[in-house]
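Intended use. Records such as the Prohibitin family protein entry shown here are meant for training and evaluating sequence-to-structure methods. They are not intended to support clinical decisions.
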Amino acid sequence: MEKLPKIGIPIIIAAILLIIVLAKSAVTIGSGEAGVLYKTFGGGVVIDEPPLGEGFHLVAPWNDVIVYEVRQQELFEQMKVLSSNGLEIQIDASAWYLPVYNDLGKLHQNLGEGYLDRVIKPAIRSAARSVVGRYTPEQLYSSKRDAIQDEIFAETKKILEKQYVQLNEVLVRDVTLPPTIKQAIERKLKQEQESLEYEFRLVTAAKEAEKVRIEAQGKADANRILSASLTDKILQDKGIDATLKLSESPNTKVVVVGSGDSGLPLILGNN
């Protein structure tokens, strides 16, 4: 085997070192991620520049890049909290969150990669305890679920705004009461529903009775007015009109004028 020229050995060493440097310097940021640059000899975490975006980057081999997911993420929490009367309630809730992109350096510097456990979980638990403590189990079970969801979101969001985290939504998926309390509430709600149905039937019956009374009163008033307006002369005229119409019938044979009672015409039929 021929010996390598003396000049070839340094070239090979330089090439190997270059490959190592390039390998240490090359950073690829994936989809939905961003990188925080840490300068070993330049002041540590870079907070006055935007984070490194998706794609390929070259950095000095003595620096470091910490990659964070910047997509929306979900936290699922089961929390045991106390209602206003001291009963233990279990709340199942989800929180949708993501780090504030342009504050990613500050997030890393102040909270680090464990920011979920350091601030988000404590924030949502604190908000849930505060909000649920304002309501009774009955309110939580029936009418106030949407309200507590909105209030937990508002209180958690207020805490996280100072922690470089953006909260998009809080969803209360389930409220679990002690079995005995749940059964008592369901019985009470059933009784209330039955009472409302009974009241509705009474109101409907009363309205129907009032309608019949008004109709009957209207008919009575109409008959009274009609009776008061009828005189003997009017009745006689109407009788004559009716007699004339009957006389036009082919079944009528003889009309004797003035032969009936009260002076009305008398109609004699075929028989």
